[in-house]
Design a protein that fits this description.
The chain is mostly beta strands. It contains no helices and 24 strands. Strands 2, 4, 5, 6, 7, 8, 9, 10, 11, 12, 13, 14 and 15 form a 13-stranded antiparallel beta sheet that branches. A 9-stranded antiparallel beta sheet has the order 19-18-17-16-24-23-22-21-20, with no helix packed on it. Strands 1-3 form a two-stranded parallel sheet.
Length: 344
């Protein structure tokens, strides 16, 4: 079934809270007008169900660094984690702030500031333009030694991203933008100083805005890499989100251009996530194996919010075949797959 492409600027929601469009886009065309959310008779309660986040990840051959500012309506969560691929270790810390006190998030994915600061601790994401962004982190007690990041993130000009509007029932929805193959430059300081540059690292953005059902789940797979000829290649894969088969999270991003995929099948052992995964698109253009080498487990168990997230790191191998028949080989590219189940 063909995906629905959105090509025009418009508001995300009608006045009655229904979606103006569902489907996918190459750029963030839709304005996330939160004031039109209609899920409760009492207007002041609407934002208690709204979930928003901005998540940045930096992947290098040896490490994964992630920084997030989020607000799930009744709770703000600010977290960071550092993964060491060589030692097979990770460290993560989270700040929970009731009703999102102190959390600032921009209206959309293309501009503004995301910010949390308390004492010496600061997490700041600043969008100068949609293509130029800055990450400034100072987390003095992180891991007992402190974590700092000063990064410039650039989305190459005219690069397309994976933008989706997923419908749920009863005026619930998820509007998301994911950006692969971002150019990252700067320094991250943790157990040592890591010099980040476009030759050794890629940045990724996961931006989300939506009103989810209380019980939710997703699978999300991603990587960014540079091919032997200098071309950039990214994938974004997903499953279990929404209730419309015409809307998928699946795409290949080659030199900044989106090649949209339909349904993708994930074959894996849910009891043994560390075993090999097999991934294939319904049109057979994408065929991958994913070989895990470590698993990060993140649990949240609060009164209203309970979640279990497994982030599996591993290597992708396989191929992608373009419409003209050209086959692009993918060999041992480091990436991840998330399996997430939540009540939130």
């Amino acid at each position: 079934m063909k995906n629905l492409e959105i090509k025009d600027f418009q508001k995300l929601l009608n006045d009655d809270g229904s979606l103006t469009a569902i489907g996918w886009a190459r750029f963030p065309y839709l304005e996330p007008n939160a004031e039109s959310i209609r899920i409760y008779p009492i207007k002041s309660l609407q934002n208690l169900r709204l979930k928003r986040w901005q998540y940045y990840a930096i992947t290098t051959p040896t490490n994964f660094f992630s920084f997030t500012i989020s607000h799930v309506g009744y709770l703000g969560l600010v977290f960071a984690y550092v993964v060491d691929f060589e030692k097979r270790t990770y460290h993560e810390e989270t700040i929970n702030t009731p009703f999102g006190a102190g959390v600032e998030l921009p209206k959309d994915s293309s501009g503004g500031v995301a910010h949390y600061e308390k004492g010496d601790l600061k997490v700041l994401f600043k969008t100068e333009t949609d293509n130029i962004r800055y990450i400034d982190v100072n987390w003095p007690k992180f891991g007992g030694i402190g974590l700092k990041a000063n990064l410039k993130i650039v989305i190459p000009k005219n690069q397309e991203s994976v933008v989706n509007v997923f419908p749920f029932e009863k005026n619930r929805f998820f509007y998301t933008r994911k950006v692969n193959c971002m150019e990252a430059t700067g320094v991250i300081e943790y157990d040592k100083s890591y010099n980040i540059n476009p030759e050794n690292a890629f940045g990724s953005l996961d931006w989300g805005f939506g009103v989810w059902p209380y019980k939710s789940a997703w699978i999300w797979g991603s990587f960014s890499t540079r091919l032997h000829d200098g071309s950039t290649l990214g994938i974004n894969l997903g499953d279990k989100i929404g209730n419309d088969p015409r809307v998928t999270d699946n795409a290949v991003i080659l030199n900044g251009k989106i090649y949209k995929l339909g349904k993708v099948k994930f074959e894996y052992d849910p009891e043994h996530l560390e075993k090999e995964w097999r991934i294939k698109s319904s049109d057979n253009k994408l065929k991958l194996t994913f070989k895990p080498f470590m698993v990060r487990l993140a649990r949240t168990n609060l009164v209203l919010l309970k979640s279990v997230l497994y982030q599996i790191f591993g290597t992708y191998s396989g191929s992608f075949t373009r419409d003209n028949g050209e086959k692009i080989e993918i060999n041992n590219v480091i990436g991840w797959i998330e399996e997430h189940n939540a009540r939130w």
